Amino acid sequence: MTQSFSLSRRGILAGLASTLALAACAQVSYTAPKAELANAFAGNSPARRAGANAWWAAFRDKQLDALIAAGLKRNLDVLTAVATIREAQANARLVGAGDLPQVDASGAAGRSRSETGSVGETSSATLGVSWLIDLFGQNRAARAGASAQLDAAYLSAEVARLTVASAIAQAYVDARYYQEALALTRQSLDSRKRSLSMTRTQDEFGSATRLEVLQAEQLVTQAEAALPGLEVGFDQSVNRLATLTAGRSAEIAAQLRKSGGQPRARYSASVGVPAEVIRVRPDVRVAERNLAAAVAGVGEAQAAFYPKLTLSGSITPANIGGGSTKTWSFGPQITLPLFNAANQANLSAAQARAEQARLAWQASVLNAVEEVENALAGYNRDARAVSAQSRLVENARETVNLTRSSYELGESDFFPVLDAERSLLSARQELAAALRDQAVNFIKLSAASAGGVGVPAV
């Protein structure tokens, strides 16, 4: 509850002196928090490169570049984040208007008839001005909070862009993996069909057994059974790309079928030490800006406990019955909060929100470090996995050639050929999976560390 008092000139001066003395008590200062971080990540971390390109440029893939560009321009999450920026801008302008004098005008006109039949006309217009003097920083705190919320909106849009770019890149890597797996399975299916045909021919001449024919047929059936699942995986990846880019699945699939090849990063990720990552992670910066806004809210709630000084005035010219009059008024008004139970509740709520924001910032820091560490765990081992799988493919391919030659020369039965072909397909598919993991971990690490120069705005 508040009470307004009309004061004498001496009372006004005394009130002004007391309010100015209290003004310093209502200020809340804010200092950005500092995280206690290790000097380096547990996993071996590539150095952070200044002026690096956007991280997806490492793949040197024009189709991936085009898909990400489309996503940053048309993705609905990105567009929603941009709309949120416009809302925050409007809110900042609205809060800033509180420091300006408020001017309003009103007018009235009337006509009346007396019992004697005479007609009278009246008209008046009023111009009013009021100005709330921000002695205790309530408006200043509100402006600081709105500014921090605007910063958070800009950074949230950056989070949305980074998330969308990462999701598009991962869906693209998945689509290329399924294309490769389908191609390998179809190649293996053709080879197995040729082996089956040869085995059937030899069975007719009595140089192969019925068991060998059945086993050859089994390998053909296994390859045929694997195709539908891989086709579904490719279609789902394409559909994901269509959703992320607000495009059409049929058009994206047609573009992907024109060329193939699994994407591989051509240079190392840009990471650095934990302090560098935390400094550039947009989600951590959003959390810090939300904390700043919440602390400003505490200052705004504290300022509500102190008096409010308003300067107001009005001028009213009027025309009554053909005569004109003019009235005016001007003076300060002090509003003193007497019963502050509501103010105390608002302050407690603001302090609780500030504590929540502080904890949210700490959680964002811990989450950022965990994401980078997890991505590093895979990224640092991917090259070894790809190298080992590549050697395994070469060994399996040579084994197939040797066993097939031995079988065709009659030096061995068909079982070693079947096993060798099965091992070759498995090795090639595992290599494709290892290449997918390598690309995905590069993407995850780049996104987790906000590597490169960041995601360009649209």
Q: What is the compact description of this entry?
A:
The chain contains 10 helices and 5 strands. By secondary structure, the chain is α+β, with helices and mostly antiparallel strands.
Secondary-structure blueprint:
Layout: E1 2-5, H1 9-23, H2 62-74, H3 76-96, E2 102-113, E3 119-133, H4 138-204, H5 210-245, H6 249-258, H7 274-280, H8 282-303, E4 308-320, E5 323-337, H9 341-408, H10 415-448
Antiparallel strand pairs: 1-5, 2-3, 3-4, 4-5
Helix pairs in contact: 2-4, 3-4, 4-5, 4-8, 4-10, 5-6, 8-9, 9-10
Q: Keyphrases for this structure?
A:
alpha+beta; Outer membrane efflux proteins (OEP); five-stranded antiparallel β-sheet; 10 helices; 458 residues; disordered N terminus; elongated
Low-confidence stretches: 1-9, 11-24, 453-458
Q: How many distinct helices?
A: 10
CATH topology title: Outer membrane efflux proteins (OEP)
Terminal CA distance: 49 Å
CATH architectural designation: Up-down Bundle
User: What number of structural domains do the residues give?
Assistant: 1
- Which strand order does the major sheet show? 1-5-4-3-2
Query: What would CATH call the class?
Result: Mainly Alpha
| CATH level-four homologous superfamily name | Outer membrane efflux proteins (OEP)
The structural class is: alpha+beta
Please indicate the percent range of residues in DSSP E strands (runs of 2 or more): 5-15%
Tell me about the largest β-sheet: 5 strands, antiparallel
Net shape: elongated
**What oligomeric state do the depicted chains represent?**
single chain
Order of helices and strands: EHHHEEHHHHHEEHH
